[in-house]
Design a protein that fits this description.
The chain is of the alpha/beta class and 394 residues long. It is built from 13 helices and 13 strands.
């Protein structure tokens, strides 16, 4: 006999209903089935993984470093990461090695955000941001980056802060738009964060790739954010080891102590021999692979896609073009990306993957250029194979 007095519960936690899944993963699967040239995912084809780093990983495995390591990270690895900042960090208390930047982001938000707290996010954004906020029970508060240079309006940013604001989530260089946060913008962010007692979480995965003579300014270098900032970083792009899942958090010791508790519960550490490779490898562990090679690929991608009629503002950093398709097609972004895939065998990501308001992203596609020159030229050949067909016009 069924007890009807027991209230029927939902099968899953409410926060899971807000998780969107990755549109990019769906596109990748289809792209691989069709043999398309992948200009969608940010997995590095350029630069190549440094051979000394790979050799050091093999040596560590063969030497038996295959069991659990210190959950907060190999001490040597933490020293290398700490020394890579312009403002050095204390490797003992301020650096935590994580399972990629994705875990670092989730750990930071789980530790900082209570259900119902607001997190300021610049839009367009890396799609993982909104899912990580939802997982922590937070509420995103969007501040749009405005064309043509994809910068925030200071007045709009000021209006976004309020009594429920707990975190401002920054990304420099930005994914997908390639904006580099300037020193003046950091000052504005620092003043507002201090006024409202807000923590700044800054995703700086693309820090090595800043173009046209610009300089990357880390949140850790900003006066007023020394004890109010958290830097999310990764070796995935800087050393082309995205499959190794080596990320990190840099923060003050008070926040680090809490982050480490959350990190231990979620993963209890990342690959021991891979960390050892960073610590003991006969390579420059602090190296930041040079931007000029990436800038040459940026310029090649700009040439290819502007010649096809897309409006591509040169990104200031990172490895993506966020290209306007409005002058080239009447199709919406999702349909245009599918047309590119099916007709041209070139895979790009529709701009709707990076905006909360679908209409805001409808006129854009994201194009990854951290590729070999051969891959970029192969994409160009596919795109020009049948010429500029009217089939892409609705």
């Amino acid at each position: 006999m069924t007890d009807t007095s027991v209230r029927r519960r939902a099968a899953f936690a409410r926060r899971t209903a807000q998780l969107t899944g990755s549109r990019l993963i769906e596109l990748l699967r289809l792209g691989h089935e069709l043999g398309a040239v992948d200009l969608a995912v940010g997995t590095p084809e350029f630069p190549a993984t440094p051979r000394p780093l790979a050799d050091a990983a093999v040596s560590a495995i063969l030497a038996g470093r295959n069991q659990y390591a210190d959950p907060v990270g190999d001490p040597g690895t933490r020293r290398r990461i700490a020394a890579s900042f312009a403002t050095p960090a204390d490797p003992e208390s301020e650096i935590t090695v994580t399972v990629g930047a994705t875990e670092a982001l989730c750990v930071a938000l789980l530790a900082l955000v209570d259900p119902g707290d607001e997190v300021i996010v610049f839009e367009p954004y890396y799609e993982c941001f909104v899912n990580a906020i939802a997982l922590a029970g937070g509420v995103p508060r969007f501040v749009r980056l405005r064309r043509p240079d994809w910068r925030f309006d200071p007045a709009e940013l000021r209006r976004a802060f309020g009594p429920r604001t707990r975190v401002l989530l920054a990304n420099t260089p930005g994914n997908p738009v390639g904006t580099v946060v300037t020193s003046a913008e950091w000052v504005e962010i620092a003043e507002l964060s201090a006024r409202w007692d807000v923590t700044v979480v800054s995703d700086e995965v693309y820090a090595p790739y800043v173009f046209d003579g610009r300089a990357h300014v880390s949140a850790a270098d900003v006066p007023g954010l020394e004890n109010r900032s958290v830097v999310v970083g990764s070796l995935s792009k800087s050393h082309a080891v995205s499959g190794w899942r080596l990320g990190f958090l840099r923060s003050d010791s008070r926040r680090s102590a809490v982050f480490r508790k959350v990190h231990e519960v979620t993963t209890n550490g990342t690959g021991a021999p891979l960390q050892a490779a960073v610590a003991i490898g006969s390579f420059d562990g602090d190296q930041r692979l040079p931007a000029p090679g990436m800038q040459a690929r940026r310029d090649q991608a700009l040439r290819i896609f502007t010649s096809l009629g897309l409006d591509c503002r040169p990104p200031e950093g990172g490895c993506y073009l966020f290209a306007s398709i409005d002058h080239q097609t009447d199709l919406a972004a999702d349909d245009y990306a599918m047309w590119m895939l099916e007709e041209k065998r070139v895979l790009v990501v529709p701009g709707t993957a990076f905006t909360a308001d679908r209409k805001y992203g409808e006129g854009f596609v994201r194009i990854a250029f951290n590729r070999s020159m051969e891959t970029l030229l192969r994409a160009e050949q596919n795109l020009l194979l049948a010429g500029q067909e009217s089939a892409c016009q609705s």
